[in-house]
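DM from R.C. (forwarded with permission)

"hey, sorry to bug you on a friday — could you get me a structure for this? deadline for the figure draft is monday and I only need the backbone to look sensible"
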Amino acid sequence: MSGTASVAAPAAAPAAQGIPWLGLAGVLLGTFVSTLTGRLSSFGLADVRGALHAGFDEGAWITTSFTMAQMLVTPFAVWVGGVYGPRQILILSALVFAAASFLLPFSQNLDTFLGLQFIAGLSSGTFIPLTLSFVLRSMSPRLWAYGVAVYALNLELSLNISASLEGFYVDHLTWHWIFWQDVPLGLGMAACLQWGVKHQPPTNDIHWDPFGLIACGAGFALLYAALDQGNRLAWLNSGLISGLLLAGGIMLVAFVIHEATAPYPWLDPRIPFRWPMPLLLLLISILRLTILSTAALIPYYLGGVRGFRALEVGDTLIWIAMPQLITCLIAAWMLRRFDPRLAGGLGMCLIGVACMTVAWTLTPGWGSDQFLVSQLLQALGQSLALSGVVFTAVLNLKPQDALSFGASLQMARLFGGEVGTALITTWNRVREQRASNLIGQHVQKGALDVQRRLDAYHHVLTPRGHSAAAPAVLGDVVRVMATTQSTIDGFVLVAAVAALGLTMFVLIVPPPPQGPASPKPLLRRKNGS
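My reply, with the result:
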């Protein structure tokens, strides 16, 4: 899995033959399902906890167990996919995932549910790492830009339509469909792969490296658990979080040392650490951070200030998802005709502008409609930015390196998203406490303005039989203002992170090397002049 940084056409025959578009649909469906499921269980967590009679602390592990399993299985998925080909492992994983999704709502207790969630995470964790390799090996290099754009579309579309789906299931069906909807998707994925991808005989080119596989998967899984539970358990004030961070760090250090010294390492260390790959993986993490941060900020505001339910929140987030069906085509067109850094840089600019637009104009009176313009702008920015960064990385790869890059991309994607969620959750909590304290300093008992406000509330509430509720109403007003201010601060933070990513991408990342997948110029000179 080593080689130069230039792009070369695959030396061997493509893995997909017969009906390659059907196989491509199958693996892209896998990326959609994997992201959709993790996001759905986040939005529907309260309903799931209630059905299982689980408390907040116990129920917090429901989503953590799913993504921990995805992190744990990623190295094994890449190794098995390299030895046996993606078809066999993806079909088996899709069937196991469908079975686990079907059984999850029948769980009688939390322990059983967590076990099935872990199995679902293990099976779905194979989807995304193997997808990019399949795209590069099954498509002509001149079509890679379109494959990457659709790949990015799948990741972000599933992320932002989940709130609408979860709200629809809870309001019109039952919470069980949060998981049952994955059954036909998993079976459909398996069918597409069965008839769309030709069987690939095993290869002995990739050596068995059990220590490297275990250390990598376990190290990232432990660190992920620490990040996911850190805000709830007060970070380093918790012995559990400190232990998870220490154990995960030790495992990853041991993994890096082992891979650098082993005669037959599982992961070629030159691929993720070969310039500019480290920077591109960092940019993927930053993009995932910005995307998940804004996806968390809007529900945080609409739920905390306006009291919106999941379905009403989904009416806003869906405006990020739906336009991407069109913007992915724009992204692919730009990738084929311009330096992909242009598409990525423009996308990061649009994300920053969208965030600052909200920060400058947000008030407690905002509802779903007021977010429309900024979310349409952000939808275009997300597609362009993610497509541009991933395609730049692809142009720095050989197709045989795609498996190693797929594993690195999965780790960067999950960690970037988790860091973003943890960062924005902690940031919002701290900034809301600060804003509440500052506002509260101006709400002093006996002050003339405060008494006038209480008298006004009392005048309105007395005819309704709630004359004693005036202080509570005033306290709620203070909370709403503090939540609004912390939301504004959150959007400013995301805009700053997007600006940092833009600076790194445009000024530091070098132009990608030329190859068969490189952008085709808009105008060609005659006679080679």
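R.C.: lifesaver. The domain at 267-518 is CATH 1.20.1250.20 (Growth Hormone; Chain: A;).
me: no worries. Confidence is low (pLDDT under 50) at residues 1-18, 522-529.
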